[in-house]
Amino acid sequence: MSIHADPLETFREEAKEQLVVLEESLLALEEDPADQEMIAAAFRSLHTIKGSGGMFDLGSLVHFAHVVESVFDLMRNGTLHVESRIISLGLQARDHLLALLEHGDDPELQSEGALLEQAFLAYLPEKGDGAASPAAGQSAEAQSERTWRILFRPKPILFRHGANPLLLIREMEELGTILVLGFSDGIPELSSIDPTECYLAWEVLLTTTADEQAIRDVFMFVEDDADLEISLVDEVADSDLPYKRLGEILLERGDITAEALEQSVNERAFLGQTLVEKGFVSSERVHAALEEQRYVRSMRESRQTAESSNAIRVGTDKLSSLVNLVGEFVSMHANVVFTAQQKDDRDFIAVGEQMDRLIRELRDLSIEMHMVPVSGLFNGYRRLVRDLASNLGKEVRLITEGSETELDKNVIDLLKDPLMHIVRNSVDHGIETPEIRTGAGKSPTGTLKLAASYAGAHVVIRVSDDGAGMNVERIRAKAIERGVLSAESDRSEEEILQYIFAPGFSTAEQTTAVSGRGVGMDVVQRNIEQLGGSVRIASRTGEGSTVTIRIPLTLAIVEGLLARVDRNWYLVNLSYIEECLDFDTMDHENRRGYASYRGGIVPFVDMRRYFRIKGTAEKNGGQQLIVVSVDDKRVGLVVDEIQDTYQSVIKSLGRIYEKVEGISGAIMLGNGTPALVLDVDRLVRLAAREKGHE
Amino acid sequence: MIDFQVERKRDPVRVRVSGDLTFGTVEELREKLLKTMPRKGTFRLVLTDIGEFDLPGVQLLYSLCRSGESGTVTIEIDPGEAAPRIEKMLRFAGLAPISCIQS
Amino acid sequence: MATKVMIVDDSVSMRQMVEIILKTAGYEVTQAVDGREGLEKLTDDTDVVISDYNMPNMNGVEFISAVRNGLVNRAVPIIMLTTESEDEKKQAGKQAGATAWITKPVNRDNLVGVLRKVTATLDF
User: Fold this and answer.
1) Would you say the ipTM is above 0.85?
2) What is the pTM of this model?
3) Closest Cα partner for A11 from A41, A53, A47?
4) CB-based contact B63 A190, cutoff 8 Å
């Protein structure tokens, strides 16, 4: 074969020969339906076509041949009787395959093939290939449909790089239902236009089950040639609320400034009309915002109709009770296992282990039902940011990222206040007035970003602004003044920044009406730690600050390692633990509290000393070092003994423990004794601080 | 690729354009339009036998209309038989109707 | 009207394979052995170009900038073929004005998938 012979042509020739064999065997079967030889021959020829077609990626040919082959397979093994209708269908299939070979996959052939395929599929049992019930697919879709707003602003160069926005629109259309709003208001007149540049921009509302990444993939080749903003605007969770008002939409999209809106709102006329008349925004933009309102409303209506048919609404209080009951059940189960072990009843223990698997599934399922996206939380701050900014004479744009990230509804409820405080702080103390910003060479409008993402069993929420940043020197001075930091300390800037979370720390020269209400960042930190989370701040002078909150996905149930110190039990959350080591055999220096670890050293906290428990560890040794880590800081916790892993519901702390640093909750063990949940995050931080003082 | 004919030089000035209205022709078309567009009066662009057209092409039509918004010249575009096609693309792209296109 | 694709690659087998895959997917294919021949064969009717990076005479990036700065069909979508390790070349291609890129090995799915992303006859 010469190098120029087209292998595809060869395949076509071979396939046509097979089709001749197929036709002959079908005709023979018409004469004698019982001829096993002929059924097998027909099957083989279909199989051959399917096989070699696969090498050439002839998708629809292969798929069709496969369906027909499956029916012949049923006849071959006797499940299906040969009847004249199948034979005539077979002959039609042969003609269709020939057409596919000769003309490729044109639309007309496709629809013809689809009909024929249906006829063959009818002979196959329900679970057969390609017979997946479309209804099942649809119900899954309806459950997680959300509406996204995609702002796509091409750079002028876009057209010259061969990109075509129309194709991007078509691709989005394939993901779900869309509303396309194109903006032509940036096109200049003939004398000043460069017609090879792109002056158009788009906003697309897309209602889809696809996730953010799938939407981003549409734009994968144009990301350098355009600005792209994707945000979640609506979803099932908050569909009971009325959709955003016109002004809010315009503001969110950056079409108008807060100031302009404020001025026009006060006029009390039709807002859209006033804005256009004042020249704050083009009528095209107002029209688009109105379209958005209408679109979201109509999507909600159709979704509600769809939902009522395949979902059940359950009150969140009922769900919460379910989660709590499952939690109790988990504890009860621990009790059962404990009793079984005490009695050394092997059968009982085995049953307990089987139950363990089921309970885990039940736990995961109930937690999953109780998870809601953070978008509701994030969107709740839009109004706040707008009002604050206009009170302070600032321009602030709020953008959100990863708002589809889900968290336990209880966690979200408890996060509302601390997060609000951080957002307030950013607008109040972080972002500068337009005059100052312009003077510093920044855009007059500040940006506040709320971002959420998963990190293992935690969710990380970042609040960042592009404002003035923190003044490290001032914080250092204040810390020294308050005696919490020694003047000689060589703490890193990053460490010093964290002092803003110390009680009574407020660094702004003047407290303002907005955030200076006596609630300090220390309260924020305490609230977040009560959720089992942590909060950190990073900042660069002149560039802005980022507050990072890390919180567990769920509060309801923790899984931890049970450790004993003297006669007390403590639970260490598994998600923090790096490893457990035999403390007695390790090199360690008791006075300064360091142990050698992985070729370096790790500071450790002797829990006996920390909780001021009298006495010393048993002489026979057996002390363990639990190495925990938060961010990249490691600390070892010295305990007397480690027991199994343990999962449990956390009970709120009684008053007695409220002030104990290093404890975040309590659980009830299977045998009825209580155990305290260690606040690992706090302990690590305390240890790091103490070592820093030396 | 683009055929540009000045059909009437005095007010109302009328030009007839046929061919592709695409990235490849918009620069040439712009130059010719600028050259023929009067300072005042009415300028009428008649489209006939339009082949392909794309977003740069449509963008130029918007730009032409915009030129008439502030000045003393009135712009009219007769889309000819391309009218339904242009309308279809604008609707697909979510763009507002081009104001000076005569229906 | 079938979409017209030009494949620019110095490897015979690569051109063959791309042609086979694309013909069965209903495209019309022209071949060029390097950037220079690619420039000669490029016409205003070419709907999309697929170009390799490493080629004698004129490499992929030189070819792309020649098209973008040329007179013939200069906004034609150009898909660049790169390998996993050639991120710098991909960047250079983007700089020069590549519309999209495909990481080798080339198969039907990524070829047809990317072609569909950058070119299609929309019904207007």
Assistant:
1) yes
2) 0.49
3) A53
4) yes
